[in-house]
User: Fold this.
Amino acid sequence: MTMSGKERAVLRADANRLQATVHAGQQGLSNALIRSLDDALRTHELVKVQLGKQVDLPAKEAARQLAGATRSVVIQVIGKTATLYRHNPSLERKPGALPPWKA
Assistant:
């Protein structure tokens, strides 16, 4: 999935107000974490992931691996927090309605 710089900038701005939905804890980048992230992306599309100290990888590499495992796009990585996005065409959208991460 390719995104323009403008699309990415809009998502980065929206992500500023989000709290981390998924937390990588003692298990690191486990299958359970990937399933949890996949569910969050399916319902919200734009998701913040808090990477704990137990994650052995640099944050950018961990975000890249999570994006690959969930077929999503890394929007930004700040410190130990990564923001990922995956469009879900099956989500019901009403004209003029807020995106799912703002609702």
User: Anything to note?
Assistant: The longest strand covers residues 46-51. The first helix runs from residue 5 to 15. The chain has a mean pLDDT of 89.
